[in-house]
Amino acid sequence: MSLHCCYCGGWWPENGSYNRQSFLRHDVPSIAPSKNFIFSIPLPSSRVSQGFKLHCFPYSTTPAPKNQDGASFLSILKILESKQAQDFPDETIDSLVSVLSPKMQTILLKKQKDWRKSLYLFRRMKSAKDYSPNPIHYNIILRSLGKAQRWDELRLCWIEMAKDGVLPTNNTYATLIDVYGKAGLVKEALLWLRHMKSRGLFPDEVTINTAVQVLKDSGQYDLGERLFKGWCDGKVELDCLDLSYDGATDSSVFSSKHFLLTELFKSGGRAPVSQIASGLARDPLKPRRAATYNTLIDLYGKAGRLKDASNAFLQMLQSGVMPDILTFNTMINICCSHGHLLEAESLLGKMEERRVHPDTKTFNIFMTYHASNGDAENVLKCYRKMKESGLHPDVVSFRIILQILCERKMISEVEGVIEEIIELVSIVDEQSLPVVMKMYIDEGFLDKAFIFFEKHFYSGDVSSKNCAAIIDLYAEKGFWKEAEEIFLAKRKLGSKKDIVEYNVMIKAYGKGKLYEKALDLFEIMRRTGPWPDDCTYNSLIQMLSGGDLPDKASEFLSQMRKSGFMPRCESFCAVLASYCRSGFLSKGVQIYKEMMACGVEPNELVYGSLVDAFAESGRIDEALEYYNIMEKSGMKANLVVLTSLIKAYGKFGCWKEAQELYGKMKKLKDGPDAIASNCLINLYAGLGMVNEAKLIFDDLIRNCQADEVSYATMMYLYKSMGMLDEATDIAQKVEQSGFLTNCASYNNVMASYAVNGKLKDCGELLHKMLTQKILPDASTFKILFTILKKGGFPSEAIIQLESSYIEGKPYARQAVVTSLFSIVGLHTFAQHLCEVLVNDGVKLESFACNAAIGAYGTAGEVDKALNVYMRMQDDDLRPDLVTYVHLAGCYGKAGMIEGLNRIYGLLKYGKIDPAESLYKALICAYEEAGRDDLAALVDQEMRFSFQNDEQICDD
Q: Which residues form a coiled coil (predicted)?
C-alpha cells in the first residue's frame, strides 16, 4: 500500500476504517523515492554545528553556578556519590542544603538515581525552617519511588503531601500515571484519572498523553483513541475503562495495589468548589505538543491503522505543530514495519526539507527493516551512511549489524565490528553474545568462541538468560564439556544462575548421554536451589526416556506429580514409548492408564506408540483396541497408526484387511506415503501377489515416491516368483535412479544380476561400490561366492577363499574380490588389487598367492604370475592343489609344455591328490598350447582314475 500526507478529510477517522490510498506521496512532490534513497541524501553543513552535537549526545551535564549556591551543590553531589544514604551526617547535609535555592534543590533531587538518597535529601530539605513545600519536589519524589516500585513509601509521601497542604497538579497526576503504567499496573494507573475527576481537575495535554501512552503500551488501542477523542471534545469519559477497584470487586482478585490506591484516594488535597465546577466542562481542545501527536501516531501504527496514522501526521502539520525527530522516526518505523520502504524514504526527504536531521535511531529503523528481509548489503550501507553522517552507532545499531553479519558467517567483518565496539563502549552488548558465539560454534572455531566469551563475560554483566542461550548453543552441538565450562563460570557478586541455566545444562548432559551428571545436577538443585520447575522434570523425563531408561523416567514422572506439577502429554508419551520400544508393553499400558487418571488427554503419538508396539509384537487385537479408542475420542488416525496396523495384518497374511486400511489412507489429504505402500507391497510379496504389488509400485513411481525399499521388495518378489528378467529390469532402474546409497541396496541389485547370470554387471557394480568407499558386508561376500561358483571358478579355490574369509585372515577379503574381478573379465581391476597384495611388503599366505597367480594368469600376465609363484617358494610356502590349478592355466597360455608335463607327472605318480578341477585345468591348458594329443591323454587318465574310484567305492 502507499501513504499520503495531504488527505483533507475530517479531523479524526470516525470508525477506524480506511481505504488504501496514497499516504505521503502528494505532500512531498519534489522527491522521487528510490530503493536506495537513504544513501543519496546530501550531508548538510549544519551537521557539525553545536546544535547537532547536542542532538547526538542528549545527556549533557548541568553547569553549576559560580557562587556559594553552586559550591554547595557540587559538595553535596560529591558526598552523595561517595557514601550510602544512611551514612550521611545530618548536620553536614543540612548546612549545605539550606543555602541552595529552590531551583538548585530541584536539580539536586532530579539528579539522584537511588530512591533512598532522593527521599533522604527531601527529608533534610523539609527540616529547614524556611523550607516552603511545593508540588515540584513532591512530583520528583513520587516519580523516584514509583520507578523503584516502592509503593508503601509512595503512599506515605502522598499522605504527607496532603498534610503539607500541597495540592496535586496535572504534573503530579501525569507522574503517577506514568510510573504505575510502566510498572505494568495499567488499571491502577488509569484510576488516577478518576481521582482527578473527583477533585474537579481536568487533565491537561501532558496528563492525557501519558494516559493514552499507558493504554497504547498495554495494547488497548481503541480505548486509548476514545480517551483522547473525549479529551479533544472537552470531556474525559471513564465509563469505557474498567476501573472497578472498590468493595464490589471480586475479593479473589483484590490485589495489594488496589488496597494501596483506596488508601491514597482517602488522602490528597481537594481543590476549591469553584475550581471543581470550572473543571466539569471545557471547550473543545486541540493538542499543541509534538509529543501528543507522536503518541497518537505510534498508537495507530501499532494498531495497524496506517491511514489513521497518516491523518494524525497531516493534522499535526495543519495545526502548526512542528514535527520533531521522534515524529519522523515513528512514521518511518510504521512504514518500515508494514513493508512500505518507498514511503519511509520519502519521509527522509521531508525531514531534510524541515531541517530535522536523522539521528542514530532513524538509521537503526532502516537497518532493522533491511535485516528482517535478509538484505545484508543495504544494512551495511545504512551503517556506513550513519557513520558518514557524524553519528555514533548505539547498542541497537551494533546488535543489528552483528546479527546480519553473523548469520552470513562473515567472520572477519564481525571481528572488525567487535573491535569498533570495544573502542567506543568497551564491551559487546550481552544480547549479541549468543549471536556471535553461535557463528563461531557453527563454524567450528570453539577456541575463538571461548576467548570471546571470557573477554565479554567477565567484563560485563551478562544475564542468566543469555548464559542459558550460550549453553544451549553448545548443547545443540553435543559439546557438553564446553557447555559445562560456561555453566560453571564464576559470576559477579550478587548474580545467581536462573532456573533456565540449570534446565539447559541438564539438556546438554542428556545430549551427551551423561545421565548420571544430569541426575547429580538435579540433586544439587533440590539441595541448594533453584528449586526444579516443571521444565526441569519434563527435560529429565524426555532425556531418560530417550536413553531407554523408562523405569527411571517413570520415577521422575511420579516425583513430578508429588512436587505439585502436572506432567505434559509429551512427557507421558515419552515414558510410554520408551517402555514400548523396550518390549515392556504392560508397563506402557500402565503409563497410559495413569495419564488418563490424571486427566491428561492422550494425543495421536500416544495411541500411535501403543498401536505400533502391539502390531510389532503380533498382538493385533490389542492394536485394534487402541485404534478404536483413538477414533472414538475424535482423533483421526494418521499415517503412522494406519501403517502400524498394516504391518500387523501383514504378520498374519490378512491382505484384505490391510487393503481396506490402505484405502482409508488414500482418502487422507496427502494419501499414503512410501512407508505404508512398502508395507503393503511386502505383504503382497510374501503371498506371491505379483499384480497387486505391481499396481502399488507403479503408483509410487508415478508419484515419485518409490524409494530403495520399494525397489528391493519388488526385486525380491520377482526373484522369488522366478521372473528373472523383471527382477533385472528393476535392478537396472535402481542403479539409474541413484538409490545405490548403502551396502544393502548394492547387495539387492547384485543378487538380481547374479541370479540372471549377468556376472560382469555384478563385477562392475562391486567396483562402483568400492569406489564410493562402501565396505562389503557378510551378505555381499555371500553373493560374491555365488558369482564365483556360477563363473566356473575352481571349487577347491572357492572353498579355500571362503575358509580364509570366515577365519578372518589378513587379505582374505582382497583375495575374494580379486578372484571375482578376474572371473568376470575385469582384469584391470583384478591386477590393481594384485599389485596391492604383492607389493605391500607383507608375507602372504597360500590363498592370497593363489588368488594373485590366478588373476595374473587369466589376464595373460604369465611372468607376473610366475614371480608370485617364485615368491611363494622363497617364503617356504608349499604349493597346494589350487596353486597347481592356476599354474596350469599360466603354462597353457605361455605354451610351456614342460611345465604342464611336470604338473601332470606329479598328478600321475600320486604326488598330488587327484582332483577333477586339476585334470580339467591341464586338459584346457594342453588344448590352449596346441597339444590336443596330450589333452586327450589327460582326459583318458581322468576317466580311468575316476572309474577306479567308483569301483572301489562299490566294492
A: none
